[in-house]
Amino acid sequence: MDYAIRAQHLCKTFRVHKREAGLAAAIRSTLFRKYATIKAVDDISFDVKRGEVVGFIGPNGAGKSTAIKMLIGVLKSDSGKVEVLGFRPFEQRKQLVKRIGVVFGQKTQLWWDLPAIDTLRLMKDIYDVPQADWNARYEMLDGILGLDEFIRSPVRKLSLGQRMRAEIAAALLHGPELILLDEPTVGVDVVGKERIRGFIAGINKRLGTTVLLTSHDMFDVEKLCKRVVIIDFGRIVYDGSLETLREKYVHRKRITLTFSMPVAEKTVSRLGYEWKKRTDTTYSFWVPKKEVPDFLEGVLAGFRIVDIKVEEPGIDAVIADIFRHKGAGA
Amino acid sequence: MSFRGALGIIRLQVATRFAYPFEFWARLVTTPMYVAVFAFLWLTVYQHSPSATIGGLTAGQMVAYYILVEISVQLITMQEVIWQMGKEVRKGRIDVELIKPISYWGGHLAHRLGDKVAFGAIMVVPFFAVAILVFGAPVPDALTLGAYAVVVLLGMLLSFFMCAALAALVVPLGHEFGGMTLLWILEGLLGGIIMPLQLYPGWFQSIAMASPFQYTIYTPAMIWLGRMPVTAQLLMGMLAWTAVSFVIAWTAWRLVLRKMTVQGG
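ok -> structure tokens follow
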């Protein structure tokens, strides 16, 4: 099997300064400092095959970014083994980063005071990209990301969406085999997000680029990734397909019934399931998956129903539940 | 890092320095003011001095010394490295620098060389002209000029590695300000910014002359004034300090990168 990423038993602890709030504590801390050890990444193992698009998700402080930084050689793991495109990231950082592209949604690698095109041209020099290749890639990126609209404006004058499109272009002009996207759509409007998602899906399909995506926007993940790795408190709590995730964690479905006439709440309660009133004639019920056919059979026999809607909770609700350690669908 | 990559960074750094015209012109106007302050001070001292020379320098040579010191500061010293590297470590932005296939230091050196090109080149010519035409600084012969160029280049490397070593202190100290203040004080006192080193008491002069700071400011100025010969001993001293600074900076940064915590996205 050809893997882009192989991480085995990675651990990373940080020592961070802690102090109480207030002026006295601030003064005290100039002489006596207290430290706490934080286990940012705690024995995680996962693989990413070449050509895969994997969602790497978790709440704030879960350890996603730390793990990504170990994958790109910025941080050295305390223990464990990691190989990315056959390189040991920390030891072979320069060789590795030549073949990968990284976008940090909350940090820019563009030159703030200069037009974005200047950074893109600099990337050509830094990555030793031949002019003809650079031209072809720029044309391709411009076609999808619409770079020419803004690329000659100083970066500080760009909207967040435009900046993110330029960041993605800067990370991809050297034709990386693997891209790591850390919150690429953070703060971007709906149209911009759609454009970025379409682009990521496109380069994966057309060029076979492997993608590891971190995002708090579950719609990004749902749209782009067949597989997700969920990390919480530094540990992997799920690694598998989105489909299996739903099957494993979604135990109930939401069924919304619209009755032909108003129904009393007392009558609805007698059905024996958790419910919520929407209007006098519309109620939502949360029914265990296995009991859905019996439930529907019962209500259709007992009431005149004009509309039925059966829904599974969205992936965001499922993941929120996992993070709350409930493990069941809403 | 490839030569092409380094040139690209230098080019953009120069362009950045011209991005805000007011900042550029303000710096161009205010820099000579530092020299003017010292010039007026010393001209007053000379007026009341019974001797025509102080520390072996005439009044004109003394002003020329401060002009040459300012040229050293603009051309050679690299304090901004501490501020930049420190900011990257403190604000967790170092990861953005490390995702490029270039040497972290090489990138910083190229940035600073861009600054030197933007400000140094523009200020150096008028500064030298004033030092020579108004205050009687000598026009060096080709050999002295060559030696001066070598000392400037070595001084740049020496200053860069000293600053990189101090920048590594940001990780344990948590802020770059301490390192920068320390460097300002050391360069001011031991480098000869405040006054020519020969004016210090003997014991302090010995300390200053044994320190690496004199090589980046005092030495180039005195070479141009023709008051310090470029000897093998001087060059060996510079090379030795550059090597020592490099080893300290390299070791410190290896430790920093191993222990670095860049938390958060």
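Chain B is about 75% helix and 0% strand.
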